[in-house]
Amino acid sequence: ATDFGIEEALKSLGVKELNAGTSTGSKWFSNGSEIESNSPVDGQLIAKVTSTTKEDYENVVKTAHAAFKEWRMLPAPKRGDIVRQFGDKLREFKEPLGKLVSYEMGKSYQEGLGEVQEMIDICDFALGLSRQLHGLTMHSERPLHRMYEQYHPLGIVGIISAFNFPVAVWSWNTALAWVCGDVCIWKPSEKTPLTGVACQNLIAEVLKENDMPEGISCLINGDYKVGELMTHDNRVPLISATGSIRMGKIVAQAVGARLGKSLLELGGNNAIIVTPEADLKMTIIGAVFGAVGTAGQRCTSTRRLIIHESIYDTVKKKLVDAYKQLRIGNPLDENNHVGPVIDKDAVKNYQNALNKVVEEGGNILVEGGVLEGEGYESGCYVKPAIAEAQNHFDIVQEETFAPILYLMKYSGDVVNALELQNGVKQGLSSAIMTTNLREAEQFLSHSGSDCGIANVNIGTSGAEIGGAFGGEKETGGGRESGSDAWKVYMRRQTNTINYSTELPLAQGIKFDL
Ligand code: UN1
After folding, report:
1. Is the CB of 465 inside a 6 Å radius of any atom of ligand 1?
2. What would the pLDDT profile of 125-134 be if each residue is shown by its tens digit?
3. Which atom of ligand 1 is nearest to the CA of 429?
4. What stretches of 145-294 adopt beta strand conformation (E)?
5. Sign of CA dihedral 444, 445, 448, 449
6. What is the ipTM metric for this complex?
7. What Cα–Cα distance (Å) separates residue 378 from each residue in 73, 190, 350, 375, 485?
8. pTM given for the model
């Protein structure tokens, strides 16, 4: 098969011969069973890692805990400088890492590069943030007293990430956590362990160049059972988890039962509302990229289009025409628009969803199907499909991680479209296409979209790192990345200092001895 420089990328990232899956930095060990990483691009075995055992994990936590005691003593701007150096390392390895993301996960090479760009951007953001971990000061009700608040590091942050953004989501969490003074233990998805190994190798080099101890960046590998070692562990005060709603509920209960903190970024069921005053050219590009980009496997992928009846037929025709232009194939080949889904289970979920929407009374507009033959040997390439459906269908209420788009109509005012858009359990991303100011403001208002992300004249996917990323309802409520998302990685302390010669009590209480 045409190589697209994969062997070279694997070599430069040091992922091929390693055959271990647990690391505290430059040290690698692992005694667990083997995990194979097979590429959905060509079905080939890329390499193996070993999973983390309970003993391996104990070793990791102890090392991380010891590292935390040193790391938190380094001034935050100095920690920021180390994160800056990691950003520089990523700039240097952007191409091989982007390629590995594309090859192991199946997204297009452009999107693989885009993902590494998000990592670079969050490092820049975190560097600036390292000088801005501000608390407030407030006036005391007592004379000659001062009150203020400080943010202190939490300790060990456990990161559980998903296959679809195998490296960026880790970096959003870890870059912020590091400048906040925390150390991290990362469990990547068992479907994309090698991108995890590659990132660990890159950060290990930076930490070594700075004479930092082992344990600041740790990697563990395995399935949910390895994740459970962290979620049940009191020594890990914060768990940040990205993945399905089903997984999020299990994590939240385990972490909640020990009153730990969790940051959850779970499923979406994202819609674009297309009003009579939409710019249709922008709408089609936004909707098609949102629905088929990353083969429909972003949390922010567009699942539903809610179209005003007056333009419904026009939009429908334009979409069907646009889908005819889509080229499906090897994502490393930049001529293709759509790559494979992650594995055969994902193909099954895609097929089940298409069967289900027909059973429930939907109408297929663009036929789906699994591709076979040359170039499609992995069995993971599916045709992006469109179905006309009703919002209340069970299958429309679910998030299917595949390129399936549901079309529905609304009539009358934009309020009716909002009811449909908000009428799902998830609340991640949302968008409206309109040039009408009233509609746009209505959509953004407190009676508008109930999602964590609400865009005007932009699709549902492709958020910038500078904003807080996450959503409401069953999406889990967590916020990662920009804005003040850093606060969850720290503990807040309120300090009151008395510099008088008296001891006046708060609330005016008298207590004389
Ligand atoms: C995800 O799908 O988990 O907004 C993250 C986007 C990307 C991140 C998606 N910046 O599509």
Report:
1. no
2. 999 999 999 9
3. 4
4. 145-153, 156-160, 183-187, 217-219, 238-242, 261-265, 270-274
5. positive
6. 0.97
7. 49, 18, 16, 8, 39
8. 0.97
